[in-house]
Amino acid sequence: MIRVEVAVAAPLDQPLTYDLEDALLPAPPGTAGDPVGLRVLVPLGGRGVTGYVLAVVAMEDVAYTVRRVTKVLDRSPLFPANMLPFFRWASSYYHYPLGLVIKAALPAGMAPRSARAIALVPGRDQELRGFFGAEPPPWVGELLTSRRLPAAASRKLLGAKATRPQIEALVEQGVLQLQDIVEADAVREKIETLFTLAPGLRAGLEHHGTETGPDDAGWSQVLPGDLKRSERQTLAALTALMAASGAAKVPARELFGRYGGARKATIALVAKGLIEQQTCRVYRTPFGEPLPPTPRPEALTPGQQQVLAQIEPALAARSYRTFLLHGITGCGKTEVYLRAAETTLALGRDVLVLVPEIALATQIEAQFLARFGETVVLLHSGLTGAERFDQWHLALSGRAKVVIGARSALFAPLADPGLIVVDEEHDSGFKQDDAFRYNGRDLAVLRGRCHDAVVLLGSATPSVTSYYHAGSGKYTLLQMKERVGDRSLPAVTVVDLSRKGRGGEKGLFRRELRQALLDNLAAGQQSLLLLNRRGFAPVLLCQDCGAPVECLHCHVALTLHRAQGRLVCHYCGYSLDQRVICSHCRSTGAMVPVGFGTERVEEEARLLLPAARIARLDSDTAADRKVFLKLLRAMHDREIDVLVGTQMIAKGHHFPHVTLVGVVWADGGLNMPDFRAAEKTFQLITQVTGRAGRGESPGRVIIQTMRPDHYSIRLAQQHQYEELYRQELELRRNPAFPPFVRLVAFHIQGEKEEEVRQGAQRLAGFCRDEKKRLQAGVEILGPAPAPLERINRNYRWQLLLKAADLDQLHMLCRQVREHRPELVAASCRLLIDVDPENMM
């Protein structure tokens, strides 16, 4: 018996202690079977939950009863023990339970728990049928067939007001029973059966020099004479497949596909010792046909050589250091990442590459696959659960040395990461906005510190905060100011969409952009059109009363997706047929679409350019990875003339034949209630501008805007990042915002509006009282309803804290967590968001 410290996958702030019987362990403690990193099923209250073993602790006498681990769920640890300090720090910094941090880090579907399943008592079928009469509900038929319902179906029935009393009555009558079960993992290892010729048969065949099949004369001298025809045909199919593949072992699915009679014949052949049957684990791969990689350059540019001259000694020193690589678009940052990865792998260490979006992971994976082959794995939410499970285990086993993915790949179980790359480090996509609200970029820096690794933050438009850290010496600034091949940055034209600049023009494209699209198509070049809003129109208005069609669960208008014929809520997923009656005036008249999205841009582009091959890339069209890859490949192969898209087309892509970029409307981000609005607008415009002119022909960019004089648009036109940085610093000094202060946001959510409001007010009062008691220099803003005050049936209020001293903010957060039950009703959720990115 040993005693272990366990972090449970439940909202508890402290780990718990359990006793673990030696018989449950996969191997004795202190050997390869050390329990640290294993998942265990442990009792918590009246149920069983998943926990994660953190440490073996001393068997001391304690005043309380120590409960026992129910079950060990793994044969070996799911993460290296050296990741525990990283998990603990993330839990402490983001004020999120440690067990839930580890659960979020692991592939989904790996947190089983105890559950209750509805089962039919043997011999009581007639009583069950009779209880419901002639028309029993569908679940009764399923129960009569399967004898026990799955945990998920049972949970749904027991939670429904209509069915729970019926089930309770049937349990009381002894017709049904509720069984305690443990839910299985949603994903598991894939095991494959393999067949091969037995060594004795192989040796006999080699001795007689036969190379054909069982009907050959040589075979008759080594095979028993009583073989059935099906057994001979099975041997013929097996040897043919081995010869064709050059492999010593053939998967059962291939053998059975070649000859259907082999299913029975293999059993007899194994029994006769003529073939051998083995099993092995198969790793499911997410890689399809990769995009064409850029060839490895024979020589580096001077800029690439200069930055690598600083990065490589830090890698060789095996010490923590963070570099901020500020390189203009098209300067060859990806090649720097690849060369640094080569150096890291040569030192025997691992490489982790993070990108803010799955789209960028797909783009960069082709380059890394071309260089490093089977040592590369992917980890992001675009994979199936099974693929992610297998990719995780390849990294855990050490077979994979390079992990590429979005923010969740940060938790990849690499034992010794020596290089951590964060591409497009400025992107808000690195911030997780649900439950565990971490920032992938910031945790990458922390993980680098934990593992003595080099962290390389790269961007053409670094975040103001990161650039400030580089100026203060926290990061080392590296700069690349020239494009590969000495290509020039594209010329940028700004078109005024305001009334004074509009004239009599109509439509989404003004004269300059229309003519440029026509000319570019005639020249055989490719064009990009950016609008960072998907759908056809963001609002559908009643023609009679002017009321918008709104989501039933959120206080937001539904977006018209004309291609689907649906009105969709982009926050909760609720949707309606586009043929609706006004809920305000009950009018059956026409509904008018107002505003525009990428679908409408695509439609107008087709009207303007009827002969052009036009495609659209946004989260609607890129939801399927295969479709997304096909579209990118078509763009690289010049099978698309005009690509319309959201920010997904703005970052990281290398399309050498794109010579025109049109920003249809540059002002969307400027209207957001966010102190970073100008910074984000500059970044998006600069990034999409960088897609033009990356090949032999020069590029051109046309920006349409209602605010041509706004500094973010004017400076993006002039490619002046440093000036943007200076202006942003001046604006953020007073009132103070990052990087001069740190922020924490408290979000209170619940279905009862009054409880949410009262909870927010109590929370604000408590924070102000604690501020006085602690004499903390914290500024407290709010409480106030969130700009989007109701999402997915939940009313939302928030409170914002600002302070130059981060320790004071953390102290207040700890006090709030300790007193949470007194401040917020049990029906409400309190979310703590450290370093918030989104205040909507």
UniProtKB/TrEMBL annotation:
Q: Where does Zn(2+) 1 bind?
A: C542, C545, C582, C585
Q: Name one GO biological process term.
A: DNA recombination
Provide the reaction this enzyme catalyses.
Answer: ATP + H2O = ADP + phosphate + H(+); Couples ATP hydrolysis with the unwinding of duplex DNA by translocating in the 3'-5' direction
EC number(s) given by UniProt: 5.6.2.4
- Which UniProt keywords are present, listed alphabetically? ATP-binding, DNA replication, DNA-binding, Helicase, Hydrolase, Isomerase, Metal-binding, Nucleotide-binding, Primosome, Zinc
UniProt remark on cofactor binding: Binds 2 zinc ions per subunit.
Ranges in a coiled coil: none
Q: Which residues bind Zn(2+) 2?
A: C551, C554, C569, C572
Matching entries from SMART domains are given as: DEXDc, HELICc
Top-level division of the source organism's lineage = Bacteria
Q: Which CDD domains match?
A: DEXHc_priA, SF2_C_priA
Q: Where is the Helicase ATP-binding domain?
A: 314-480
Keyword Phosphoprotein assigned: no
- SUPFAM superfamilies, alphabetically? P-loop containing nucleoside triphosphate hydrolases (SSF52540)
NCBIfam families, alphabetized: priA
Q: Which PANTHER family match?
A: PRIMOSOMAL PROTEIN N (PTHR30580:SF0)
The entry sums up its family as follows: Belongs to the helicase family. PriA subfamily.
Q: How does it assemble?
A: Component of the replication restart primosome.
Q: Give the protein name, as stated in the record.
A: Replication restart protein PriA
Q: Which gene encodes it?
A: priA
